[in-house]
């Protein structure tokens, strides 16, 4: 499939002047309405979740099947119930109230289990999920690399995990704010090593006027994705939502969350 919605013809996508549209959630809601059985996934660097849950619910509920938030800036004093979205499972990895942290929302109808990342150092902020979609198993990886973290160190640790997982899995999706652009040579080497493609081509981060593409959806099965794009929501100060749709049908029956120690 690998189609992209035309940014210039959509009033709900971030425009060239970085202006927030009147109804920032309507585009992805209409997309899901058009393809209700297809899996829609997305990511947003939320830059502190604690006071934004109402907007996050409006964005995700009934629309996204897999959604990653980065820089949640919460800790164990914030219970899961505070961030609950109906019909979604939560998987989170907190750093502290002042920085970092990642959180996944996953459609409760998707058979899903979290893989424990015991081989990775604590400073690598990552969550590994195994998700069954139709007759195939997918590894979905959510991660956040702080700007100050050494890029070679981060990419080396993620590469170690991929090398291990590649022995048993064939389908991979990586979501997150990596603070790396595709022009970065180390990042290029990483992508080439695992035959990965970046689906997002438009800049979702506007800390500068021209914007940068540091929020990614990456996969080794790019031909199965369509409608990859960027949507401004006004939720985060400099970051827009990145999203893509997998051309696979999601199941309708409820399934149970399983946890097991993997590596």
Overview of this structure, please?
By secondary structure, this protein is α+β, with helices and mostly antiparallel strands. The protein has one domain (7-260): 4-Layer Sandwich (Deoxyribonuclease I, Chain A). Helix content is 16%, strand content 31%. The protein has helices at residues 26-34, 53-60, 151-165, 185-193, and strands at 38-45, 66-70, 88-93, 102-107, 112-115, 125-133, 136-144, 171-177, 197-198, 215-219, 225-231, 241-249, 257-260. The N and C termini lie far apart (34 Å). Mean pLDDT is 86; it is low at 1-21.
Features:
single chain, alpha+beta, six-stranded mixed beta sheet, 13 strands, globular, disordered N terminus
Please sum up the structure shown.
16% of the residues lie in helices and 31% in strands.
Would you spell out the secondary-structure blueprint of this structure?
Blueprint: H1 26-34, E1 38-45, H2 53-60, E2 66-70, E3 88-93, E4 102-107, E5 112-115, E6 125-133, E7 136-144, H3 151-165, E8 171-177, H4 185-193, E9 197-198, E10 215-219, E11 225-231, E12 241-249, E13 257-260
Parallel strand pairs: 1-2, 5-13, 7-8
Antiparallel strand pairs: 1-12, 2-4, 3-4, 5-6, 6-7, 8-10, 9-10, 11-12
Number of domains: 1
Shape: globular
Shape-level CATH architecture: 4-Layer Sandwich
- The radius of gyration computed from the alpha-carbon positions, rounded to a whole number of angstroms, is 17 Å
CATH superfamily: Endonuclease/exonuclease/phosphatase
Largest sheet: 7 strands, mixed
The ordered string of helix (H) and strand (E) elements is: HEHEEEEEEHEHEEEEE
Provide a count of the helices.
4
Helix-strand makeup class: alpha+beta
Looking across the biggest beta sheet, what order are the strands in?
Answer: 9-10-8-7-6-5-13
Query: What is the overall pLDDT average?
Result: 86
Low-confidence stretches: 1-21
State the distance separating the first and last CA atoms: 34 Å
CATH fold topology: Deoxyribonuclease I, Chain A
Helical content (DSSP H or I, runs of 4+): 10-25%
Task: Tell me the name of the CATH class.
Answer: Alpha Beta
Report the portion of residues in β strands: 25-35%
The strand count comes to 13
